[in-house]
Amino acid sequence: MGASVPPADAPVLAIGGAVKRFGSRTALSGLDLRLGDGEVFALLGPNGAGKTTTINLILGFLKADAGTVRVCGIDAGADPVGARRHVAYIPEQVALYPGLSGVENLRYFTTLAGLDLSRNEAHALLAEAGLTLEAHRRKAGAYSKGMRQKVGIAVALARRARLLLLDEPTSGLDPSAAADFSATIRAAAGRGTAVLMATHDLYRVHEMAGRVGVLSGGRIVEEIDPKTLDHVALERLYIDRLPESTA
């Protein structure tokens, strides 16, 4: 069977009525989410709300019990490999080879994806992802979390991923590094990359996201434009929409 060809007019991400159960526990109970080119969507929710399950469905590591999950029109459950060709995932802790430099890590991981980057191309991508020139040749074992994330973003840029998935991207970053990362994500969105981030960081959500969905009980119970609320009002809305057991 040949690789799936994405329809030209398909949204980057379309989740419709997704349900996922683990035994007697329902992790997702009819999740709906749609994301287009260049959009940044923040998925807010406490631990156990279904954020990680959502990411795993998009990546095709899990299959929905009901509903649909499509990436660029490709069914992530039926053709997970085809869907993942359009996705880059940056976990909370990006793992790099500590004995390799940033350039060497980037070239290695893009080789695994079937790409052949020159050193000049690798330097250009790392710079575009916000990594300082001095750090390009430094061993990754000395990198901070924010620097490792930027190598991950450079990999996504090299692969021309349509969708960037971020899991708690600003956890553990100092304010300066978090602000720098926010700027990098906004720049990626400006180039047309859609971004879905699962996070608890209400402050950075206000800076980065164009849309925010509050995930509770396995579905999005509120969707808002964060620019219409200040940080205090956004936090109050988030807390008010959670079940009493998690608030």
Automatic annotation (TrEMBL):
Question: Which keywords has UniProt assigned to this entry?
Answer: ATP-binding, Nucleotide-binding, Transport
Q: Where is the ABC transporter domain?
A: 13-242
Pfam families in alphabetical order? ABC_tran
A Gene Ontology MF term for this entry? ATP binding
- Report the family membership: Belongs to the ABC transporter superfamily.
Record PANTHER family: ABC TRANSPORTER ATP-BINDING PROTEIN ALBC-RELATED
Output this protein's name: Multidrug efflux system ATP-binding protein
What species is this protein from? Answer: Methylorubrum suomiense
Q: What is the lineage of its organism?
A: Bacteria, Pseudomonadati, Pseudomonadota, Alphaproteobacteria, Hyphomicrobiales
